[in-house]
Batch of 3 targets.
Target 1
Amino acid sequence: MSGSRFSLGKRILIILGVAIVVMQFFQIDRSNPPATAPLAGPAPVKAVLERACYDCHSNETRWPWYAYVAPMSWLVGDHVTHGRSELNFSEWRNLSAEDRAEMREEIYEEAAEGEMPPSDYLLLHSDAALSAEDLSTLRDWSAASYGDEAKVSPAPQLRQAAEQNESKNANRENGASGSEHEEEAGESGH
Ligand code: HEC
């Protein structure tokens, strides 16, 4: 046997190299199907969502270079498949008005709680971080009544309530006082 030809370290490197090459044969599906029922607006809301959410929650994914290199590509593919199945802005108008209203609230909640966009995504996409202004845009949208989702221009008192709650949301972990105010804001929008 030729066991002495390569040191243990070299053998491990060769095995790793072969494994990485073999992994490349398992590519993910990077297709972007047509957006059949896309979210129509309002423009400021769309801008926030496009910047921070569309990579995983639409058919307009901007596939990064590491989506072409296994094993990172598997993680990206998993995020996108899973993300699209939960919420897809390219198929938004297929949802009923009730479901859209519910989803708008959930969107704001996930964003305000810092659950979305996911923190590992933010590591590589710092431009997707949400500012206080982005959050208040999403909050106004979530408080808009059923028919107003596409043309929301919140009443002044609504915007005020949103701004007052901004600071409260910052210490959400300390107490759950924010949610009552949220509902008040929602009521006054109807
Ligand atoms: C890196 C990919 C990625 C990005 C970017 C992303 N999401 Fe998600 N999102 C997911 C995945 C994966 C899930 C499903 C698993 C989970 O809930 O963690 C999900 C789930 C959700 C859900 C459903 C939660 C539920 O309980 O059903 C909402 C709402 C949501 N995301 C909103 C957003 C919003 C709003 C943004 C942008 C501010 C965003 N996401 C950005 C990957 C992403």
Target 2
Amino acid sequence: MKNVRYIAVNDCVDTANKNNDIAALKNVMNEFYSRDNSRKIRSSIRARAKAGLYRCSYAPFGYRKSSDNHNKLIVDEETAWIVKRIFELANAGMGAHKIASVFREEKVSCPSWWQHTRGEKNYPERFKNPQNQYEWSHTIIRNMIGNPVYLGHSVMCKTEAIFKVGKYKKLPEEEWIRTDNTHEPLVTQEVFDGANAKILSRKRDTTNNFVSVFSGLVKCGTCGKALALRYWGRDRHRIYVCTAYAHNTKSCTDHRIYYDDLYEAVLADIQYHARLAFENKEKAVALAVKMNARMDGNRGKSNETKLKQARKRYDEVTRLFDRLYEDSLSGRISNENFTRLIDKYQTEQEKLLEQIATLEDVLQEVKDSQSNAVQWAELMVGYVGIMELTAENLNLLVERIEVSDRAETEDGMQQTVKICYRFGGYIGEQTVKTKMIRKPRKKRDCPRKTAMAK
Ligand SMILES: [Zn+2]
């Protein structure tokens, strides 16, 4: 037992004295008491909620607490119009992100700024930057659109304090207490339903229904990071954007490409190569070998020549060695020169052996690439006449897809899509004509590429 002295003044307990049996019992009683208290408070809270009495510390944005009755919500004339506007915009099909950016542009003050100015909550750091007054979060907007408080109903007891922990837990929806028509509504049921239906349909499209066939395969041709699927513009076009750029616009350029354009380009490339492999396998194999050799900086051919030269020189040096010994024995060479030349030839011989080993390795790789090319062509033959891309067939055929940024050419804006095939390597290359999505930005060097070039 640790040497701790426990004193409870109210209960006359001091562990320094003997006779403390009662302390343990009192502790249990206290626990019962506070548990009971907590239960009573909770049931009183629920009873008040059922009576439609507003009990939170702050009124929801757009409302104020009535000055003569703190449990009643009244319309806040200063902010109610903002709530109404959010619902109107959402009902017109605008998403929460877009509404937030509209408010930022129009310099509409955000809820926390109102709380801060009214002394309800204190944000000493946030509003040192005056720009933050208009910094709306899309989460707040989305939560507001789903909140039935704006229909004049009260939904309370969504959370509950956990006994003695001082934290709140979320309650399941069936335990929430909803009381209708407790205060003046800010929106009609029709507008509320419309706004919610549109926000929900938008969410479902991005998260549940649509699965990109390119998942995990598309990379940025500049920085190598993944491209991520985004939804763009009024028509919610699917586009891919460099994630490095999305995270920080200075770290790369956007590399944006329409999902549909990417799909067409990749499908066309597979169709072309599958047909080639089907009609002329040797040609397809030769193409794969050629493309890989190009990637290797044409190492294959020159290396064979280099290996021949190195072997020839090695034989020469070996012969020179033998002659040197003969010369030394017959006294045709001085001891001094003999040592010097022996050293020289030995060093050269070692270097040549090393060079020969490296070249043999490289040539073996080329041979492997030949057999890989055959394997690739055989795989492609099976996909002749392919009509659609699926995650399955793509992952069987393709290792990686690289999208370059748009570039101005005589034919207008273009970007290339490079396809690295399984076994085959970088064989496919398609040029995509870029539809104008947005004015192209000034090209910036990708930091990774700049680092690599050094
Ligand atoms: Zn990038």
Target 3
Amino acid sequence: MLWMYCFWLLGCASPALRAPAAPLSVVMVSFDTTRADRIGTYGGPSGLTPNLDRFAEGAVVFEHAYAQTNTTGPSHASLFTSRYPTEVHGGGPVAAPGAETPLLAQVLHAYGYATAAFVSGGAMNPQGGLAPGFDVYKSASNFGSMSKTIPLALSWLEKLPASKPSFTFVHGYDAHSPTSKPAPFAGKPPTGLAAEVLRTRSERVMDGAMHATDLDIPVIDSTFLRMRSPEARAALTALEPDAPQLTEADIARIRQSYDDALGWADTWFGMLMAGLEAQHRLENTVIIVLADHGEQLGEDGLFGHCCGAEDEETHVPLIIAGPGLKPHREAGLVELIDVLPTITDLVQAVTPTGAHGRSLAPALHGEPWEGRGVAWTQATQRYTLVSGRTGTGRLSYTGVQAKSSALADLIEVARLDGPGFTSSGTVDRAALRTEMVSWLRSLGPAAAEKKLATPPELLRTMRSHGYFEANKP
Ligand SMILES: [Zn+2]
């Protein structure tokens, strides 16, 4: 049967194509909107994530893993294809991988895996384009919790014969606003502006002030608002000098609500682990914990995610455990797109041609391994953001939306001390810009150039949750 799959798995010439002696199953858990630094094993608050911390003790913890973009659909599209964001979504908000780009579930399904995804709506709805390859793709709620998806995943696994290899993807928006969780995880409910920030998409907050969403901003349009440029901030302040200001107490409540929600998600992760153990699946299952992006929690006067590449939005947990893997911590830079080739490596499947990720299997086995020199992030929602994170700092470019081929030229000639570039930490700006240009030129054609459409139904769902409020067509 395998020859059939060679039709689209163009890498079938690889000698790696062989049936594994004892196929490993894979469980991947995506904690939407979860910053690495809020998890205990990454230095987060003590006692907030006991189940994740216990899991990490028996796992390989990648201390410096970065998401390839800062929103849900595109980030999962990159995760599932091992391609960079512009290659696999249409430049809009919704993941829509091209038919020629196989998804991880399609690869594993081709190898006889039973495949199921239990997601929490929003950009992860089936219309988002990530369902192909899954036998079951169920959206359990809209912007909901792992409390809905994890029981479904365990129930599905329970019915599977133990000998059948499986890929289970579980996702929850617990840490995504509006953060909601039951007692005792819900502390004192936020009120006033804090509640408003949690209820809405919070790119409306800049420099701690809550601005209206329908402002007609002169000089700079909402594209620049989303870029959070100094010019946008100055214009907003001039337009709304009396915009209500979040107090320190508001900010503390927002952070507490975020942490409470993460604690609730951690509890359900504990339920998942207990369920897998009860089903005797741990001895033959690789478990991968990750997040699609992080969240601004008041740093630099900002909240939410969508608009930047700083570590608050892109430094994510990546924790992997499984039979034969050597628990330890790895400090090297990793991209989320490295997960797909890691899985195909571990289960002895072929990695699709065109995947940009690098297998982390040597690191998982405790073998000599070096992280990346640069972890890249892109954002393409009506503006261009390209960012490179090294071990010591970051260089970002923001500018008008351009086709990827033109973008490389644009960045190459842009002045490093001009408004397009920002940096943090310690970086060789000129050298990193050269590397950025070279990386952009190595990418495949931009999906935006293929005119991939965003399904209207999904657009309606996203808008009803406050997305795109500054840019309604
Ligand atoms: Zn997300």
